[in-house]
């Protein structure tokens, strides 16, 4: 039986393997979620371009024993909020914004992160220069 670490994620959608995002292995050795693999226009590995037959795809299990004993699962609202904040952060990084927009985003990020399970979130506090500072956060969506 093939087993993945719980923090593993699909190389196509970059999301963790949970519920409907079951990991599968193709003959070249790369692993993706079944949903992404089925959505490919051709039966070729997205990473190495090796062709495969869908009959040769194998299910992979996620090792749940590596998780802390009381790890709560994220709600859809938490995931939606994380994605919204990530989109806002990306927009500001790529296109810039006013000092007030940066301050507002940093405040929203801080408030959201305070509601999350401490072992799942890392938060790098920005420097006092808001416009030139970088707000970084990550959350492990694999549960």
From TrEMBL:
<feature type="domain" description="RING-type">
    <location>
        <begin position="10"/>
        <end position="49"/>
    </location>
</feature>
<keyword id="KW-0479">Metal-binding</keyword>
<dbReference type="InterPro" id="IPR017907">
    <property type="entry name" value="Znf_RING_CS"/>
</dbReference>
<keyword id="KW-0862">Zinc</keyword>
<protein>
    <recommendedName>
        <fullName>RING-type domain-containing protein</fullName>
    </recommendedName>
</protein>
<dbReference type="InterPro" id="IPR013083">
    <property type="entry name" value="Znf_RING/FYVE/PHD"/>
</dbReference>
<keyword id="KW-0863">Zinc-finger</keyword>
<dbReference type="InterPro" id="IPR001841">
    <property type="entry name" value="Znf_RING"/>
</dbReference>
<dbReference type="GO" id="GO:0008270">
    <property type="term" value="F:zinc ion binding"/>
</dbReference>
<dbReference type="Pfam" id="PF14634">
    <property type="entry name" value="zf-RING_5"/>
</dbReference>
């Amino acid at each position: 039986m093939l087993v993945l670490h719980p923090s593993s994620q699909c190389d196509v959608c970059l999301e963790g393997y949970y519920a409907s995002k079951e990991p599968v292995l193709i003959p070249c050795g790369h692993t993706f979620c079944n949903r992404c693999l089925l959505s490919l226009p051709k039966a070729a590995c997205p990473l190495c371009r090796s062709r495969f037959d869908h009959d040769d795809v194998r299910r992979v299990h996620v090792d749940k024993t590596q998780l802390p004993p009381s790890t709560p699962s994220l709600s859809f609202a938490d995931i939606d909020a994380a994605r919204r904040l990530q989109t806002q952060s990306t927009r500001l990084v790529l296109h810039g914004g006013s000092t007030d927009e940066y301050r507002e985003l940093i405040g929203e990020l801080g408030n959201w992160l305070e509601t999350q399970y401490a072992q799942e979130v890392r938060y790098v506090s920005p420097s006092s220069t808001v416009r030139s500072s970088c707000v970084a956060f990550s959350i492990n969506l694999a549960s």
